[in-house]
Design goal:
Layout lengths: L5 E6 L4 E7 L6 E5 L13 H6 L3 E5 L18 H14 L5 E6 L2 H11 L4 E7 L10 H5 L18 H8 L1 H9 L2 H8 L42 H14 L2 H5 L4 H8 L8 E10 L20 E9 L5 H4 L1 H15 L8
Parallel strand pairs: 3-4, 3-5, 5-6, 6-7, 7-8
Antiparallel strand pairs: 1-2, 2-4
Length: 343
């Protein structure tokens, strides 16, 4: 029988966090942190699976998303603020530690929690985004660009050209996503394919074409990819995007300098000594870690690293849930055994 998923809200004087939860309240705590432009439901395949093993599973709507607070300034979306949200959530749950699992922009959040608050971390895992470059801001990402795929004269920022576009034309970028949130969600949540390997990611062309969706600045009406998302889930995403808009979600890209400064305050020289799991997506050509050097800095910044690769696109928790669930399960059982639920 599938574990029930319940809805909750935690409020502090500075922030409101909505979250989903499943599993026994006294079970070892896993906190799943979503990225752009997702929601707590992005972990809909993971929450019941890990709850059934005896874990207490929590997935928040991150700041700027869903039913959590949506502050109105770019600087409200720096990593220091978001990490504080998560520590407040952990405190509200009455727990000292959790295993933190992040994806996309949720990845630097869990990496920063691990590097700045190691005492609150039993283990840390990331899907798609390795430890190191993104915490150092956009320049850290550009330094790892594979120039054989992204010639500097054509793609100065490589596959991260879209991040430059946010900085240069934030209003247009946001308006493009907000023009038709239902079509936006359909266009973004696509499965991966081997055919893109060795070719520039679509994100590399965003500046050239004046936005994610070209001159019309609105998502095309493409068929829904049922390998990633159902009609019901698509409707939930679209409703949330309509309600909150994209100011908060896109503002995560507007704090690179502040985020790099924050990363510089990490303890232990930024070296992670707890168990670490990184799951790369073979067909994620933006966060491409198979052929490029993007994941190399991570090797020098952790003490106990497990690497896995899944044949998936970027939205791997939704596209390949069985494989994604298997990797952390094995890692938890073998590398974080003291955190495994006691029968």
């Amino acid at each position: 029988m599938a574990a029930a998923i319940t809805e909750h809200v935690v409020k502090s004087t500075r922030h409101t966090t909505f979250y989903l939860a499943a599993g026994p309240r006294d079970g070892p705590l896993l906190i799943f942190v979503h990225g752009w432009p997702e929601l707590s439901i992005s972990w809909r395949h993971q929450l019941p699976a890990f709850a059934a093993l005896g874990f207490r599973c929590v997935a928040p709507d991150m700041r700027g998303y869903g039913r959590s607070s949506v502050p109105g300034r770019h600087e409200d979306y720096g990593q220091a603020e978001i990490v504080t949200d998560m520590i407040e959530l952990l405190d509200a749950l009455g727990r000292e530690r959790a295993v933190w699992i992040g994806h996309d922009w949720g990845s630097p959040v869990v990496w920063n929690i691990a590097s700045h608050h190691p005492g609150r971390v039993a283990g840390v895992a990331s899907l798609c985004v390795p430890y190191g470059p993104l915490e150092q801001g956009l320049e850290g990402l550009i330094a790892a660009v594979d120039r054989s795929v992204y010639p500097e004269d054509e793609f100065p920022a490589g596959r991260w050209e879209y991040m430059r576009f946010y900085e240069e034309n934030f209003a247009r970028a946001t308006a493009g996503f907000e023009a038709n949130p239902y079509n936006t969600a359909k266009a973004l949540f696509r499965s991966g394919s081997p055919s893109g390997r060795g070719k520039p990611s679509r994100t590399a062309f965003v500046r050239k074409q004046g936005g994610w969706f070209g001159p019309d600045n609105a998502a095309p009406d493409v068929p829904r990819d049922d390998a990633v998302i159902t009609e019901e889930d698509l409707s939930v995403y679209a409703a949330a995007m309509t309600r909150t808009g994209f100011f908060g979600a896109d503002s995560y890209y507007m704090n690179h300098a502040a985020n790099a400064a924050y990363a510089g305050t990490a303890g232990n020289g930024g070296v992670l000594e707890m168990p670490v799991l990184f799951i790369a997506a073979r067909y994620d050509y933006t966060c491409e870690c198979i052929d490029s050097d993007l994941a190399k800095p991570m090797a020098a910044s952790r003490g106990n690293l497990t690497n896995r690769v899944i044949d998936s696109g970027h939205w791997m928790a939704q596209e390949k849930p069985v494989a994604v669930n298997a990797a952390p399960s094995h890692w938890l059982a073998t590398q974080v055994p003291d955190f495994w639920p006691v029968p």
